[in-house]
Amino acid sequence: MPQPFKQPPRELDRDAFVARFADVYEHSPWIAEVVFEAGLTARHDRPSGLHEAMKAVVESAGRDRQLALLRAHPDLAERVAVAGELSRQSTSEQAGAGLDRCTAEEAARFTALNGAYNAKFGFPFIIAVKGKDRHQILSAFETRSAYDAASEFRTNLDEVHKIALFRLREL
Question: In Å, what is the CA distance from 143 to each residue of 39, 100, 146?
Fold first, then answer.
């Protein structure tokens, strides 16, 4: 059975809850706010239960809000971390996948893929990088770049949910 959070979320006041869970979904504190306002129960004291509630908020949000969520994610392997634009979690996740150690050729490939993908779809390529290396990520990036917009929108939302669950499990 999954372990509960050290401090149960339902014991937190609104400000503490939002502060703790604001970046589970990248730069999207509105998700934590909606979950808190809906009311917390014992099931929210475990990462899986809180994830279900947060995922439901995203899934019931309109397309514009979902698109804003996707656009809140950084381009992979870009140097935006230097400018402080990545969340602490994204910085750690990308480093864990070796994206901070790309060769010049890999970095150029990521840059080209990021630009083409954003131009085609209007949002960044998103993949839950935990457990993957930069070669696997590049391969997935190249494959998914050929897909249609509706499929990629759905795939990206699914990847965002995976990222959120990984983040919740680490809290």
Answer: 41, 22, 6
